[in-house]
Amino acid sequence: MSTSRGSIWWSRRRRVGGLMSLAAALALATAYGLFGARGSVATAQNAGPLQGLGSITGTVTAPSAFKAARVYLRNTDKNIMYMVYTSAGAFRAVAMLPGNYELTVKGRGLESAAQKLVVKAGVNPAVKVGMQAADNPDKYPTWVDPS
Q1: Strand partners, 90
Q2: Count of beta carbons in the 10 Å neighbourhood of residue 61
Q3: Long-range contacts from 67-71, C-beta under 8 angstroms, 24+ separation
Q4: Long-range contacts formed by 132-135: CB under 8 A, 24+ apart
């Protein structure tokens, strides 16, 4: 059996055309899901919390000014680590599995003691964390030039 170059070209064209049709169908389905049958845009602001997951908010203080400290939330039951940054000393972690957590905060030359907390489904009480000076000021470096 020999195939001509024309039939190979046609076979490739059909394969590419099928993939393009699939991509177009996925794009249409996504657009329909975003805009819905009535044409209104669905946003994360309108959506409620994810069923069965929790969220944590909190504030971080320190004896010296800091920018974008890292908040680590380690699920001790499932050994999963969540990490978020602070913004003006506040943080929010969403879509967290319920369970027991250990919270620590680290910034350039600053660190907090480990704090245990329990995350339940839904919105949880706000957490307050205080950082103190780390033993080594370069212990938690950042990409930001210290000068």
Answers
A1: 59, 87
A2: 12
A3: 67/107, 67/144, 68/107, 68/142, 69/105, 69/106, 69/107, 69/110, 69/131, 70/105, 70/106, 70/107, 70/140, 71/103, 71/104, 71/105, 71/129
A4: 132/62, 132/63, 133/63, 133/64, 133/109, 134/106, 134/109, 134/110
The phi, psi pair for 93, rounded to 5°, reads -120, 130
Beta-bridge partner residues of 84: 71
Question: Is 54 in a helix, a strand, or coil?
Answer: strand
Q: If DSSP states are collapsed to H, E and C, what string results for 90-134?
A: EEEEEEECCEEEEEEEEECCEEECCEEEEECCEECCCEEEEEEEC
CB 138 within 8 A of CB 104: no
Structure tokens at 69: 């400290």
pLDDT per residue as tens digits for the range 43-97:
545 555 678 999 999 999 999 999 899 999 999 999 999 999 999 999 999 999 9
Paired residues of 85 in beta bridges: 70
